[in-house]
Design brief:
Elements: H1 3-9, H2 12-18, E1 40-42, E2 63-64, H3 70-73, H4 79-96, E3 100-102, H5 125-140, E4 145-151, E5 164-166, H6 169-187, E6 191-194, E7 198-199, E8 202-203, H7 208-218, E9 224-226, H8 235-241, H9 253-263, H10 269-289, H11 298-312, E10 314-318, E11 331-334, H12 336-339, E12 352-353, H13 359-362, E13 369-372, H14 384-396, E14 399-405, H15 424-436, E15 440-445, E16 460-463, H16 471-479, E17 512-514, H17 523-528, E18 546-553, E19 557-559, E20 564-572, E21 578-588, E22 599-608, E23 613-620, H18 622-625, E24 627-629, E25 634-636, E26 640-649, E27 652-662, H19 677-680, H20 684-698, H21 709-713, H22 734-748
Parallel strand pairs: 1-3, 2-12, 3-4, 4-6, 5-7, 5-17, 6-9, 11-13, 11-14, 14-15, 15-16, 19-27
Antiparallel strand pairs: 7-8, 10-16, 18-20, 20-23, 21-22, 21-26, 24-25, 26-27
Bound molecules: beta-D-glucopyranose (BGC).
């Protein structure tokens, strides 16, 4: 496609018209210029392609394969696995003529109550952005685009289309944008979808700071920005800010505003051209990589869905090695989700699964189990008949496996959860069953964290999340030891909702939600507050055991423009093969700003045979140690010692090392008369200069000797200017202090010149 030529030939009306979609899922075609329309379809954990001709929102989508949702996927901590999923989805899109799959979602799980948490990866930006990158790389390697969404701060459903997320700059950068940043820079999604909400008062769909300054100028994003469906408020401001494509169609209504604004000189045609160019580039890219010979094998992808879910499930408890189950024992499967599992969330990501495998069906290949339904999912009312049948079944067997979780009504796109509990009828069922059977195992189906009042009363807990259509197969594989569990939590499970850092400010008041917990999201908060979670971030058990040893670091000192490599050896000390997720966290030992106790900066998943050991390497760069410094509007690494923790979870650190990092670009420091003695003495040079100054003004008054440390600390909180009135020394004048500040600024910043 000769884009320059097409742009030159297009009328203003044609340009404006191309800036919005046709129907729900297509861009527009312009026959005169041979511009083809392309189709977008929802995902992200399967293909939700609706009838192409009718192109409306309500139609049932094609039969497809539902993979585990993002909340499960992230627990795999497995970049290759997610990339493999991406490739499969890319093939499906090619086979179905879909140019862009609308995902992945990289929003941070700020509160476990957010109705869309099942579509998001993690509470940690590094894990989230790594998972999103792998997904994007996988899909796009097949010549199909992705839409990294929802940019940004779409962390709740309550007033989700109008609420303003009020967040300070450092938190924005370190947590909420960082979750997108790596994926944008490393995986280069063809499209980014703006969020519905406002960010600090400005709609994401017309937010120049987000869409232009950060996304395009700072992160050098070259792709297209599409609106979330219906997120546009002021289309003209959107064009100015860099929102290229409005979806779905506004039936030409918003296009007219673009034309009018250009005619009135209120909108520069160059801004419209930029958007049109990016839309044409997207169409071109898809047309270029279009393949006509792709065959989509549903059965193969169904198997892949089971394989992926087996890598995602998290074993939370395994007292007395109740798992893997001994198939020679009398086993009961109890709970409706054994027969009819909840395996995906509601809303735009809902897949029309061509088949679903329940645990009850999958277990037939292994052994005979008895089944009792236990509860119903339509309403949260105990059904006495179902309950007593379940208790009876539990009594009559040696092991009771309970399949429970959140029914559809409890969690969906469109609304937030109001609490973290399972339905009362299920809690009662778990209590009653565990009373009569001491070998009770709970298998959970939920999109986000739940409270577990039953945790101490059962022997096993397996978190399946929303595991896709093959969830039952994966569950049986894990329960009976065909697969060794290897997932770890990508989010903290608190003991109770009120422990969560956003608790006091979620979902906000009216159209404002203040992110007052700042950077202390998820484990960053629980660590700092020394709150014991129910299950911590990064936690998950295996049927084998791993030993960590021999931590090594390639250098003990580095400049922040260098890299450092940390290696550890991990050994499988158990009897069966298994995978371990090795996690690396960084801690800034002494910082002038408030920082978390530790932050995830590396992870690797390693497969080990019994007795086998492998060396695992992590490369850390400048960013691994930096915080976002709002004074210089950039990432900054302070000089100092950084501890490096390597462990099996955020609360199970096995090895430690450290490195001294020096910033290559020093920040200019500007002292004033309002700087305190403590500010001045925070560097060695400043302290020496201050001591000299004191000696000078004290000369002849006392012996002129050096002040003791104790005497010096009296100046810590005192602004320099106040020394005039807090001293009866006539030598200390404002003028002298000004001269001192001047000299101090020159000396301190001397190596910057
Ligand atoms: C959702 C998006 C989705 C779009 C298209 C919106 O309501 O927020 O995630 O991709 O609809 O269905």
């Amino acid at each position: 496609m000769n884009i320059d030529k097409i742009l030159a030939e297009m009328s203003l009306e044609e340009k404006a018209s191309l800036c919005s979609g046709e129907g729900f899922w297509h861009t527009k075609s312009v026959e005169r210029l041979d511009i083809q329309k392309i189709m977008m379809s929802d995902g992200p954990h399967g293909l939700r392609k609706v009838n192409e001709e009718r192109d409306c929102v309500t139609d049932e989508s094609i039969e497809a394969v539902c993979f585990p949702t993002a909340s499960a996927l992230a627990c795999s901590f497995d970049r290759d696995l997610i990339e493999k999923l991406g490739k499969a989805l890319g093939d499906e899109c090619q086979a179905e003529g879909v140019a862009v799959i609308l995902g992945p979602g990289a929003n941070i799980k700020r509160s476990p109550l957010c109705g869309r948490n099942f579509e998001y990866f993690s509470e940690d930006p590094y894990l989230s952005t790594e998972m999103a990158s792998a997904y994007i790389k996988g899909v796009q390697s097949r010549g199909v685009g992705t839409s990294l969404k929802h940019f940004a701060l779409n962390n709740q459903e309550y007033r989700g289309m109008s609420v303003s997320a009020e967040v300070d700059e450092r938190t924005l950068r370190e947590i909420y944008l960082a979750s997108f940043e790596g994926a944008v820079k490393n995986a280069k999604p063809w499209t980014v979808m703006c969020s519905y909400n406002r960010v600090n008062g400005v709609h994401s769909s017309e937010n120049p700071k987000l869409l232009s300054n950060i996304l395009r100028d700072e992160w050098e994003y070259k792709g297209l920005v599409v609106s979330d469906w219906g997120a546009v408020d002021n289309r003209v401001n959107g064009i100015k800010a860099g929102l290229d494509l409005e979806m779905p169609s506004s039936l030409g209504k918003n296009d007219k505003f673009i034309v009018e604004a250009v005619r009135l000189g209120k909108l520069d045609i160059k801004d419209v051209d930029k958007c049109v160019r990016r839309i044409l580039e997207l169409i071109d890219k898809y047309e270029d990589g279009k393949k006509s010979n792709i065959i989509w094998d549903k059965e193969k992808h169904n198997k892949l869905a089971a394989e992926i879910e087996s890598e995602c499930m998290v074993l939370l408890k395994n007292e007395g090695n109740i798992l893997p189950l001994d198939r020679s024992k009398k086993i009961a499967f109890i709970g409706r989700f054994a027969e009819s599992p909840r395996y995906q969330g509601g809303g735009s990501s809902h897949i029309n699964s061509y088949k679903v495998t329940s645990a009850l069906e999958a277990v037939k290949d292994i052994c005979k189990v008895t089944y009792a339904e236990g509860y119903n999912t339509v309403e949260d009312e105990t059904d006495d008949k179902l309950l007593s049948e379940a208790v009876q079944a539990a009594k009559e067997c040696e092991i009771a496996v309970l399949f429970v979780g959140l029914p559809d009504l409890f969690e969906s796109e469109g609304y937030d959860r109001s609490h973290l509990r399972l339905p009362e009828c299920q809690i009662e069922l778990i209590e009653r069953v565990s009373e009569v059977n001491e070998n009770t195992v709970v298998v959970l189906h939920n999109g986000s964290a739940v409270e577990m009042p039953f945790a101490d009363n059962v022997k096993g807990i397996l978190e399946a999340y929303l595991g896709g259509q093959a969830v039952g197969q994966a569950e049986v594989n894990i329960l009976f030891g065909k697969k060794n569990p290897s997932g770890k939590l990508a989010e903290t499970f608190p003991r109770k909702l009120s422990d969560n850092p956003s608790y006091l400010n979620f979902p906000g008041e009216g159209d404002r939600v203040r992110y007052q917990e700042g950077i202390f999201v998820g484990y960053r908060y629980y660590d700092k507050k020394e709150i014991e979670p129910l299950y911590p971030f990064g936690y998950g058990l295996s049927y084998t055991t791993f030993e960590y040893k021999d931590i090594d670091i390639s250098k003990s000192e580095m400049n922040d423009d260098e890299e450092v490599t940390v290696t550890v050896t991990v050994k499988n000390t158990g009897k069966i093969k298994g995978k371990e997720i090795v996690q690396l966290y960084v801690n800034d030992e002494q910082s002038s700003v408030i920082r978390p106790i530790k932050e995830l900066k590396g992870f690797e998943k390693v497969m080990l045979n019994p007795g086998e050991e492998k060396k695992v390497a992590f490369v850390l760069d400048k960013r691994s140690f930096a915080y976002y410094n709002t004074d210089i509007s950039d990432w900054y690494t302070e000089y100092g010692k950084y501890n490096i923790f390597v462990g099996s979870s955020s609360r199970d650190i096995r090895l430690k090392t450290c490195v001294y990092v020096a910033p290559t670009n020093k920040i200019r420091v500007e002292y004033t008369l309002n700087s305190t003695g403590g500010d001045v003495m925070s560097t060695e040079m400043g302290k020496e200069l201050f001591k000299e100054f004191l000696k000078e003004v004290n000369a002849g008054i006392n012996s002129g000797s050096d002040k003791s440390e104790g005497e010096l600390s009296m100046y810590n909180e005192l602004p320099l200017r106040a020394m005039v009135s807090f001293s009866d020394n006539a030598n200390i004048t404002r003028e002298k202090l000004s001269q001192f500040v001047k000299r101090l600024n020159i000396m301190i910043n001397s190596d910057l010149y």
